[in-house]
Every structure is written in C-alpha cells, then in structure tokens.
Amino acid sequence: MAQTAPRLPVHPVTYSCRVPRALITGITGQDGLYLAELLTGKGYAVFGLVRGQSNPKVQLVESVVPGVELIEGDLTDLPSLISAMEIAQPDEVYNLGAISYVGLSWRQAELTGDVTGMGVLRMLEAIRIVTSNDMGRVRFYQASSSEMFGKVREVPQTEATAFHPRSPYGVAKTFGHYMTVNYRESYDAFACSGILFNHESPRRGVEFVTRKVSRGVARIALGLQDTITLGNLDARRDWGFAGDYVEAMWQMLQQPEPGDYVIATGETWSIRDLLDLAFSRIGIEDWSSYVEQDPRFMRLAEVDDLIGDAAKAKQTLGWKPTVNFTELVQMMVDADLESERLRRPPGA
Ligand code: NAP
Ligand code: G4F
Fold it and tell me: How far apart are CA 280 and CA 282, in angstroms?
C-alpha cells in the first residue's frame, strides 16, 4: 500500500545520536570495496553480505576495510537476506551483488537471471518484510547498468532513453531496474536506481577488458607474457573511475526524494584506443604484434557503442568525474606493473 506521509529529512534529528548504518551486497567486488571505504570514512557502521562457506575474498575485505562487519548471505536465498537486514538494521542498503560479467551471462543465463535479476526482488522483499511495509525507512540503491540500453535508441543515453538489452545480464538488470521503480511506486520505497556506465580501477576483475589489457601490458613489459588475446576491438565504451562512481551512489541516497540517475563521463573510447594508451605507457606505440584476436571472446550480440549523459546527476547531485580515461588507463597499468613485479619469480 502506498504511503503518503511526507519524507523525513536526510539523517533526521531522531537519528542524530546514532551512527548511520549501511548494508552492502557485493562488498567483495570492485565497487563494494570502494563504497565500504567511502562509508567507513564518513563514520558509517558498515555491514557486508558475503556468500559461500569459505569465501576467499573475506581476507581482502578485512584488510582493505578492517572495521566492516561481514554477514553470511546470498542473493538467491531470501531468508539469509532477511537475517542480514535484522542483524545490520541498516539506514541504507546498497545492492551491488550480481553475476556482473556479461560474457558469462550467456553461458550461465539462468544463474544470471536468478542472482542479477531475482536477487534485486529478494533484497527489496527482505526490506519490505523487515520494515513491515514501512519501506521508506530504509534507503535502497540498486546497481543498474548502461547494458540496459544495449542496442542504443539514441546518443547519448539519458534516464529517459528506452532500453534494448543485448545479453542475459542486460535483461536481468532491466528486470531489477523496473522492480526498483515498482517498489518505489507501490510501497513508497526510498529506492534509487543508478544507471552506471563502465567504471574501472586497479581492483577491476581480470575478466573485464580494461584490466585484461592493463595486466597483459604490464606482464609483457616485464617479460612474463608475449601477447594479449582479445575479442572485438571496435566496441566503444564510456569508461570512468570506480572511486568516483561510488560517491554518486552515496549522493543518490542523501537526496530528499528517490530517483534514477545516469552516471557517466560523456566520452566514448574504443578497445583500440584503450590499447594505444596502455601500450604507450610502457613505450610501445605499435601494439599490433602483441595483440591476438579469438572468436571465444566475441559477444553473441554486442553492445557497439555506449555514451552517457550525466546532466541530471551533475545538476541534482553536483556529481562529476575527477579521473579522465587517459589517467585511468595509466593508473591501472602502473598498479599492475607494481603488483606483477612483486609476483615475478626471483631471477625472471
Ligand atoms: P564485481 O566486482 O563483479 O562484484 C560482484 C559482487 O557480487 C561480488 O562481491 C560477488 O561476490 C557478488 N555476488 C555474486 N553472486 C552473488 C550472490 N549469489 N549473492 C551475493 N553476492 C553475490 O562487480 P562490480 O564491478 O563491483 O559491480 C558492482 C555492481 O554494479 C554489480 O551489480 C554490477 O553488475 C553493477 N555495475 C557495474 C558496472 C561496472 O562497470 N563496474 C557498471 C554498471 C553496473 P563474490 O566475490 O563472492 O563472487
Ligand atoms: O570489459 P567488458 O567485459 O565490460 P562490459 O561488457 O561493457 O560490461 C561491464 O560494464 C557494464 C556497464 O556497461 C556493467 F554493467 C557490467 O557488469 C560490466 O562491468 O567488455 C567491454 C567491451 C565489450 O564490447 C567486449 O566485447 O570489450 C569488448 N572486449 C573485447 N575483447 C572484451 C574482450 N571484453 C572482455 N571482457 N574480454 C575480451 O577479451
């Protein structure tokens, strides 16, 4: 049932003597780590959902953000989400957990639908059940994606652009996005959907193209690898820095009203541009003999070109990116040079 009571101001007076509390799903991932650092730095008590009986990334989270409390749970398991809500008693929930690798989503389409799509509905249901339908008490962030635009209907893409997802991942994210909108409209949930374009960092998984390139280039420079094998070199993406993008997630939940926001740099670059910048960092201008192509890394249906218009975020949140693409690629290559050097066997 929709509620009509006026919304409380941000961090209301009744909460002023209490530390704000946040629950993050996907805390072991790239964005989860940056967001946990951001929120602990702001004085939040941070709780993170961790799946599996012996998740190897627990140590990583504990070393990067030592004060975080980890709770066992899985987005495919509603009782564990209810339990996590009861333990954390959060003011804010950030739903970042997902099968997030688009390439895998064709090979494990059902799992992707279950985690990336249905997982959103389960998290919303856990909030509804624990708050006894008073969903406005908990602010919810859904990690939506520019993959929902897919075969783009207009350039650049805004909050009003129609969706045409091209992968099981994109379809699952579109379901999660509309569920978030629907719970806002049905239950007066303070539910926001951040439509984030690609964002990268030295913490990016090695399966994604930017990190695959930065790590490959570093290993080539150190004589540990001869070539990098890639798929489509002509695809174009709007790439930003993950540290900037988690700031936008937090800002969305501090607004007087919930809403949906595109977060993007407004620039588009190809995989070839990425290769130019990454190889030039190690002094190689012609990378053609270091790069191979393999159909295994081609998409069954490609998203050819993404470019976002973040004007609403700029105007409403005051958000803008602080790291440009050249700086981002340099940051990633430099970080991989450092970590691969440490991993290099003695004498190599
Ligand atoms: P990521 O590094 O791949 O992290 C994904 C997280 O989801 C991991 O913590 C993973 O846990 C967790 N997870 C997977 N299956 C789960 C399950 N069944 N239950 C609970 N958690 C589960 O992704 P990211 O780059 O940080 O992205 C964060 C979110 O933003 C994702 O939802 C992604 O789809 C979305 N997004 C990302 C981008 C981007 O460019 N990075 C852009 C738009 C949207 P394990 O460590 O245990 O596997
Ligand atoms: O790095 P990617 O795998 O990222 P993709 O598919 O754009 O998805 C990422 O960004 C989305 C936001 O738009 C997120 F929602 C999603 O969770 C994820 O974080 O691929 C980027 C492009 C694609 O066009 C792909 O075909 O790079 C192309 N590519 C070329 N060779 C490759 C490769 N991608 C990967 N992963 N590996 C390659 O060898």
Answer: 5
- CATH 3.40.50.1820 is right for the domain spanning 209-237+267-303+325-338: no
Give the H or E element holding residue 228. Answer: strand 228-230
Residue 214 and residue 330: Cα distance in Å, rounded?
8
The predicted model gives 329-337 an average pLDDT of 98
Q: Which distant-in-sequence residues (6+ apart) come within 8 Å of 275 by Cβ?
A: 213, 233, 287, 291
Domain residue ranges of the chain, discontinuous segments joined by + = 21-200+241-263, 209-237+267-303+325-338
Cα 299 to middle of ligand 2, angstroms: 9
CA of 29 to the centre of ligand 2 (A): 16
Q: Which atom of ligand 1 is nearest to the CA of 199?
A: 40
> What is the rounded distance in angstroms from the CA atom of residue 80 to the CA atom of residue 283?
51
How many whole angstroms from 54 Cα to the centroid of ligand 1? Answer: 18
Catalytic hit among 169, 183, 187, 261: 169
CB 48 within 8 A of CB 24: yes
CA 45 to each of CA 22, 24, 90, 126, 201: distance values in angstroms, whole numbers, following the listed order: 6, 11, 9, 20, 25
CATH topology of domain 21-200+241-263: Rossmann fold (3.40.50)
Cα separation, 152 vs 309, whole angstroms:
13
Ligand 1-lining residues (CB < 6 angstroms): 25-26, 28-32, 49, 51-52, 55, 57, 74-76, 96-100, 115, 143, 145, 196, 198-199, 205
Position 348 confidence tier, pLDDT thresholds 50, 70, 90: low
120 to each of 68, 164, 180, 273, 307, how far by Cα in Å? 23, 20, 8, 35, 25
pLDDT tens by residue, 246-262: 999 999 999 999 999 99
CA angle 256, 261, 266 (to 5 degrees): 140
pTM, two decimal places: 0.95
Whether the CB-CB separation of 46 and 22 falls below 8 Å is answered with yes
Q: How confident is the model at residue 114 (pLDDT cuts 50, 70, 90)?
A: very high
Average pLDDT in the chain:
95
Is residue 141 annotated as part of the catalytic site, yes or no?
A: no
CB atoms within 10 A of CB 141: 25
